Amino acid sequence: MRCSKCGREAVYFARYEGRYYCHRHFNEMVERKVKATIRKYQMIRRGEKIGVAVSGGKDSVVLMHLLAKLRRKFPFELVAITIDEGIRGYRDRSVEIAKRNAELLGIEHHIYSFRDYIGLTLDETVEIMGPREERVGACSYCGVWRRWLLNCAARELGVDKLAVGLNLDDEVQMFLMNLMRGDVARLGRTGPYYEEIHEGLVPRIKPLREVPEKEIVLYAVLNDIEVDLSECPYAVEAFRAEIRDWLNEMEEKHPGTKYQLLRSYDRLFPLIAKTYAREIGLNRCKLCGQPTAGKICKACQFRLQVVERARKKGIAFTLQGEP
Ligand SMILES: [Zn+2]
Ligand SMILES: [Zn+2]
C-alpha cells in the first residue's frame, strides 16, 4: 500500500482514520499528536524543568526521545529519572537501557533505587512478606513506592513537572477499570492533567495519552530506538489483561473505540473532578512529610508492615535512610 500523503511505500495503516503512512509521515503524525496533547493541556511551559520518568520500557523511552526532539524547537529543561525497584534479571537490564538512551540524547540521568530510599528492594520485600496469600500483590508495594520515590526525586531535582509514559491504551484501560469497580472518585484524581493539588506533590503530565500503544512500538522499531520489551516477572494483573484484550477486540470490530472512550473520559473529567476533588484535603505524612490524605502515607505504612514482618520472622536487614 501507498502513503496517503506522499504515495511512498506505506509502513502503517491507521484503521481508526483509514489512512496509510510511510515512515516519514508516520513519525510526523506521532510527533504532531504528542505536540498537540502538550499544547492542549499546557503540559509544558517555556523554560520549565521537566523530569521524564524512564523505566527503559517502550513507552517511557519513546517519550524521552520525543521530548528531546521537541526541546530543540521549544526550549525547556529535561532530566531523566529511573526508579530501580530491585527486581533481579529484569530491572537491572532495563536500567541500563534507560541509561544508554539518556546518554545518546545527552540528557542528565538520575537513578533512584528502592534499596537506597525505601531501605529494601522489591525482591527482598516479596521474600520477607512470604507467599502470595499472606501479603498484598508485589505490584501494590511497587506502585505505591515508585510513585512516592518519583515524587521524592522530582522534588530533590527541582523538577516542575513529571512526564510519565502512559499511552492511549493505558488511559482507556484505567478509565474502564475504575468504572467497573465503581471508583468514580479516582477518575477525578487522574485525568488528562494534574492540577497543582498540593505544594509537595509534583504535577504529572502524560504527553503520550493520545498515542496508541501499537504506534509507540512501531515508532521505536522504525527509528531504531533501543527499548526493553520484556514484562515484569511480578506483573499478574489479570483484570487489566482482560480489559486490554476486550478493548483490542472492540477496536478491531469498531475502529476508533479507544479514542471515543478517551474523549468520553476527557469530557467527564472536569465534572468528576469538581465533585470529588474537595473530598481529599491533603496533610503531610508524619514520617516522611509527603502529602497524604491520612496521617501516615501509604508508602510509609507499607514500609512499616515489611519491617514488622521481618522482625517477627527474625530476618535481619538494615534500613538505609528514613523515607
Ligand atoms: Zn508519506
Ligand atoms: Zn510517608
TrEMBL record:
Keyword Magnesium: yes
Gene Ontology MF term list: 4 iron, 4 sulfur cluster binding; ATP binding; metal ion binding; transferase activity; tRNA binding
Keyword Protein biosynthesis recorded: no
Domain (tRNA(Ile)-lysidine/2-thiocytidine synthase N-terminal): residue spans on this chain: 50-228
Binding-site list for Zn(2+) 1: C3, C6, C22, H25
GO cellular component assignments: cytosolic tRNA wobble base thiouridylase complex
Cofactor: Mg(2+); [4Fe-4S] cluster
Binding residues for Zn(2+) 2: C285, C288, C297, C300
Binding site for ATP: A53, V54, S55, D59, I83, G165, D170
One record GO biological process: tRNA wobble position uridine thiolation
Pfam families from the UniProt entry: ATP_bind_3 (PF01171), TtuA_LIM_N (PF22082)
Keywords (A to Z) from UniProt: 4Fe-4S, ATP-binding, Iron, Iron-sulfur, Magnesium, Metal-binding, Nucleotide-binding, Transferase, Zinc
Segments forming domain 2-thiouridine synthetase TtuA-like N-terminal LIM: 2-27
Alphabetical list of InterPro entries matching this protein: CTU1-like_ATP-bd (IPR056369), Ncs6/Tuc1/Ctu1 (IPR000541), Rossmann-like_a/b/a_fold (IPR014729), TilS/TtcA_N (IPR011063), tRNA_thiolation_TtcA_Ctu1 (IPR035107), TtuA-like_LIM_N (IPR054306)
Entries under NCBIfam families matching the protein: TIGR00269 family protein
Protein name: N-type ATP pyrophosphatase superfamily protein
